[in-house]
Amino acid sequence: MPIIKAAIPPKKTMLPPGVYTPVISLYKPTKTQELDLDAMYKHCQYLVRGGQHGLVYQGTNGEAALLDREEKKDVLRTVRRAVTDLGVPDYPIVAGISGQSTNESIQLAKDAAIAGASFGLLLPPSYWAKAMSEEALLGFYRDVADESPIPVVIYNFPGVTSGIDLNSDDLTTLASHPNIVAVKLTCGNIGKAIRITSHFTPVQFSVYGGSSDFLFPTLEAGGVGCVTGMGNVFPRATARVYDLWMEGKKDEARRLQDVVANAEWACKKSLAFTKFAAWSFVGGKLGLEDERAFWPRRPYLPAGEKMKKWTVEVMGVLEEEEGRIPERVFGGV
């Protein structure tokens, strides 16, 4: 018996499909590690020119838990200015709006909208995981979505939420909310993705993989893209997997996917490795020579010398591919 698609209307505003980078935060090389907004402006434009279809700020790779409310607004204002200056003022900017209470998440959504974000990315609360029953989880997402001035993308990442893992039934239920438009599955569960895509068209509720190492399978399963920390390092190559698949060049997409998946292994290991790789492969191109700009914010620690070498070796397999792909050209500066 065929699975029947859900009878819900298309959402008013959907997250555009494609590959999104959860952008790292860059800091000044001081004891208190203030945000380096000038550096983040440059990095933002580099990622857009690199072909990324959208950017995510204040997610896990952006160290959202280590930024205060005003810093988050400063970053969003900066990157909206960066894409506007580049000539793409409507470029998709997703902001993390995850708080430990309903009220906090609603306030973060309102802050994000005012500062220039297009969508909000929302983790489930997890400080007191035992209190987050299914009823509490569903109520949380509905309450935030009711009040959010921007569409909400569910962020399912059990690794940072004390094991809280929204299942396909939960996601199917939440997909009917008019202001909940997509899910990012950092749980890496392709079976879950298929169960969701079997019930919804992409204009009803979209599915994104949580990394680029399974982008090809996500697209084959009916998903519409991914959010990948590797975009911070190799934006052109990661976006190219999606672009090739969309052009019907699946053999080429699969070949590039194999290389991308091997390179992403370093990102899976540690945020510190992702940030070091970004400095190693991108920092010089942006004029950011001081490695400390790419260190994680304390108490997180930068990569040690042994793992730096390993990271460059693992991720370096993609450097040649990246160099063959031209940057996008825009009408702005």
Q: What does the secondary structure layout of this molecule look like, with pairings?
A:
Elements: E1 18-22, H1 37-49, E2 54-57, H2 69-85, E3 93-96, H3 102-115, E4 119-122, H4 134-147, E5 152-156, H5 168-174, E6 180-185, H6 190-197, E7 206-209, H7 215-220, E8 225-227, H8 235-246, H9 250-269, H10 271-282, H11 305-315, H12 319-324
Parallel strand pairs: 1-2, 1-8, 2-3, 3-4, 4-5, 5-6, 6-7, 7-8
Structure description:
The protein has a single domain (18-324), classed as Alpha-Beta Barrel (TIM Barrel), CATH 3.20.20. It is 42% helix and 11% strand. The protein has 12 helices and 8 strands. The protein has an 8-stranded parallel β-barrel, surrounded by 6 helices. α5 links the parallel β5 (152-156) and β6 (180-185).
Give a quick rundown of the structure.
This is Aldolase. This protein is α/β, with parallel strands linked by helices.
CATH architecture: Alpha-Beta Barrel
Number of strands: 8
Oligomeric state of this protein: single chain
Largest beta sheet: strand ordering: 1-2-3-4-5-6-7-8
N to C succession of SSEs: EHEHEHEHEHEHEHEHHHHH
Helix content: 40-55%
Mean pLDDT: 96
Q: Compute the gyration radius: what is it?
A: 19 Å
CATH fold group: TIM Barrel
- Proportion of residues in β-strands: 5-15%
- Tell me the count of domains: 1
CATH class: Alpha Beta
Features of the shown structure:
TIM Barrel; 42% helix; 8 strands; globular; alpha/beta; eight-stranded parallel beta barrel; 12 helices; 333 residues; single chain
